[in-house]
Design brief:
The protein folds into two domains: 196 residues, no CATH class; 73 residues, Alpha-Beta Plaits (2-Layer Sandwich), CATH 3.30.70. The relative contact order is 0.12. Strand 2 and strand 3 form a beta hairpin. The protein is built from ten helices and four strands. The protein is an alpha+beta fold. Helix 1 packs antiparallel against helix 5. It comes from Amedibacillus dolichus. Keywords: Cell membrane, Membrane, Transmembrane, Transmembrane helix. This is YitT family protein.
């Protein structure tokens, strides 16, 4: 099987799993406990006391409707990427809702609202994060901010925030202020889970910039003891007006204390700048040097 086809199949499988996890969080924790949250789920929960329509039906109808809105305004390419979610999410949502209603006793999933908010928010975030990892969209309320961004050029993050805020305000009108505050917790936990899923499996390391007159001794230690490569940058002091070499090296988190100790041992006045890196690709991190 060609590599491209294999990767496409893997991405589709991950999108399907992501939608299943998303639907699981909604049907098991969010809907039974009337937890306000972002997206279509939050709108459906907020509108239920007003329109008296089952939230599952509202979510399914709006998911399909927004898919066609995205197709109309964002093009066929976007529609194809979102099609899997548009089909799978309503299907999983309806199937899981049927299982919950028929296979479990009434009120089986009713629990403390804060507990439901925590687990529901995390599961929803994990599901959406899996979908985003594949470069796909979960559809639904992702689409209005994308459409507005295309025509207004307002930053996408701002439009998403406005959308979620309006959803919470809708919840205030129907469920009260406290329920809306609980909904904010759900949205926050979802965003954290999305971020964690996007960096899942990434190699977290430390990127170090070292400025010292005794840089050659430090290079020897880094190369021979830590087995890390370095890059020498040419720096120019703004205050001293002197040219000085700057060592740039990426080390694992375990290696950083060793590096810091050695650098300060060689030169107590060395200037060290350290930043966290979420992902590193290259020799010594994602692959090892082959012996021939």
């Amino acid at each position: 099987m060609p590599l491209a086809n294999k990767e496409t199949i893997q991405e589709i499988v991950l999108v399907i799993i992501g939608n299943l996890v998303l639907a699981l969080g909604v049907t098991v924790f969010i809907l039974p406990n009337d937890v306000l949250t972002g997206g279509l789920t939050g709108i459906a929960v907020a509108l239920e006391p007003v329109i008296h329509v089952e939230p599952t039906l509202v979510i399914n109808v709006m998911t399909v409707a927004l898919f066609f809105v995205g197709w109309l305004f964002l093009g066929k390419r976007f529609a194809l990427k979102t099609l899997v979610s548009t089909i799978c999410y309503p299907l999983f949502l309806s199937l899981l809702a049927w299982v919950v209603d028929t296979q479990f006793p009434e009120n089986y999933f009713i629990m403390d609202r804060y507990l439901a908010t925590i687990y529901g928010g995390i599961l929803m975030g994990c599901g959406v994060g899996l979908i985003f990892r594949c470069g796909a969209s979960s559809g639904g309320m992702d689409i209005p901010p994308l459409v507005l961004h295309k025509f207004t050029h307002i930053p996408l993050a701002t439009l998403v925030l406005i959308t979620d805020t309006l959803t919470v305000l809708l919840g205030v009108a129907t469920y009260g202020f406290q329920a809306a505050l609980v909904g904010i917790i759900s949205v926050f936990l979802s965003s954290v889970a999305i971020d964690k899923m996007l960096t899942l499996g990434a190699i977290k390391s430390k990127n170090c910039m070292i400025i010292s007159e005794r840089y050659e001794e430090m290079l020897s230690y880094i190369h021979q003891e830590l087995y890390r490569g370095t890059t020498i940058l040419q720096g120019h002091g703004g205050f001293t007006q002197e040219n000085r070499p700057v060592i740039m090296v990426v080390v694992s988190k375990k290696q950083y204390p060793l590096l810091e100790h050695e650098v300060l041992k060689v030169d107590p006045n060395a200037f060290i700048i350290v930043t966290d890196t979420d992902e590193v690709h290259g020799l010594g991190f994602t692959y090892e040097e082959e012996d021939f």
